[in-house]
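Milestone M4 deliverable, item 7.
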Amino acid sequence: MIYVIGSGPAGVSCSKALLERGEKITMLDAGNEPEEKITQKLELFRKNPDHTEITSLKGTLDTRGQDSPLKLSYGSDYPYQGTPKITEKNVLCRTSHAQGGLSTVWGAAIMPYLAKDCSTWPLKYSELDTYFKKVLEFMPIAGYKDELEEYFPLHSKPTPYPRCSQTKLLLETMNKNKKKLASQNIFFGHARLAVHFNGTKDKPACIKCANCLYGCPLQIIYSSSFTLKELLKNPNFNYEQGIIVEKISEENDTAIIHAGDSKKNKKLTFRGERVFVACGSALTTRIMMKSLDVKEITLKDSQHFVIPCLTLRRAKGVSNEKLHTLSQAFIELIPSEGKSAHLQIYTYNDLYEQRLKQMFGKMYSPLKPILNLLLERIIAIQGYLHSDDSSEITIKENGNELQQELNPLTETKAKQIIKLLRRNTFKLGFTPIPFMNKLSKSAGGSHIGSSFPMGTKSDLLGRPIGLQRIHLVDSSVLPSIAAQTITLTAMANAYRIGATTNLK
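Output delivered:
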C-alpha cells in the first residue's frame, strides 16, 4: 500500500500523479469539515443566491492592525481546530487540520516563481513546466494574457474575470507608463486566481457578491477539497479521515506510520511500501523532527508586509459595484541583481469600511459622506520577499517551539520597496500612506518551507537523507521560498515527485 498524508494542495497533487500511474493509494487525513449549520446555509444559498442568509456566512474579521488576523471560513475556525499548540517568539504560524488544509482559507492567488530566483536549485525550474500544466488541468486559472507572461509563463489558457473600476483605472495608468516603470524594474499585470469564475457543470458562475474574503458562498474559489472529492470516485483511492500522524519510521522495505484516531481516541499503526508526506511545511517538519529525533531545524519564510495606499484617481461608486474582492492586479519588482519581490493589489472591499468605523468610532456616521470619498481611493498591497531577504524560523522541542531569527536586511528591503513605489506615484496611479505599512511576524504570510531542502537535506524525490521510502512533497523540500505565491510551485513539485518516483 502507498500512503499519502494530508489533503492539502500538495497532497492531492501527488495523489493525482500516483493514481495516473495506476497505483493504489490510501490518504490519511485529519479532515476537519465545516459545521453542519454552515453546510446547510451553503446548500440554501446555492439553490437561492438572493437569499438573505448570505450575510450570516460572512462572520467577522478583526482588522485593528494586529499581525495577520485569523482568517475564518464562513465565520468558523474549523480549519484550525485540533492543531498542535506551539510556542511562538515573533512568529505567527498557521497550521490546519481541514480537508483541503489552508486552501480552505487562502486568497487563491497563483503564480510560478521567477526562474532566475531559483537558479541555485538542484533541478532546473523549467523542469517543473510539465507538472504546472498537469496541475492546471484540475485547478482553474483565471486571469489575462499580459506582459507578465514574459517572466511568468501561464502554462494554461486563463479564463477572464470581472475587474472593478479601481483596477481598470490603475492598470490604465500603469499601461501609459509601462516603459518608464520597466526601466525601474517595475512590471505589472492582472492577478492570476484559482477560481471557477465562469462556473462548471457542478458550480455556478461568480455572482460578484463580494464575499470572497469570508468564504465564497458558491464555493467557486478552488480548494484542494474539491480535488479530494474527485479522487474519491477513483476505485484505487481510499480515504481515512480523523487520522493524526505523529511519526514515521522505516524497517527494511516497509514504511511505518504511527498515528492516532481523533474520533475513536486510540493509537494506530499503518504499514506501507511508500509514504508521501504533505501536511503543510510546519506540520510535516514537526512530524519529521520527531521521526528522526532532530532537536533543531530552520524553516525559511517569504516575509509578508502590508502597504495601505491611496489612488490618485477616485473610482466613483466602487463601494456599490458588484465585484469580487480577491486580488485583481500584481506588481513584480525584478532587479537586475538580487531577488524579486511580489506585490498583490487588493482594491475596494468592506474590510476597509470596517477599519474606518473602528478608527473613527462615534464620529464615523457624521463623517460618512467624506469618508466614502476616501473609501473610493483606498487600496491595500500585500507584499512578499524572497527567503534570502527574509528572517528565518528556528524550530525546537520536537516542533513545539518556533523562534524568529531576525534578518536585518528584511526591514530595509521593505522600506526600499515603499520608497520605490512613492517615487513612481504618478506612473503607478497610487501612493503609499505614510506610517501605515506593516511588516508581519515571520510566517505571517503562510509562505514557508525549506526545512528539508532538496539537494542538501533531502534528495530530488523529497526523501530526507538516509531514508528510502518516506518522501516529503510539500514546500518543506523546496530549496528556497521565492517571493511569488507558493502553492502552484509546491503542487507542481509534488506532482513531479509522485510521477517520477521509482516505486519498486
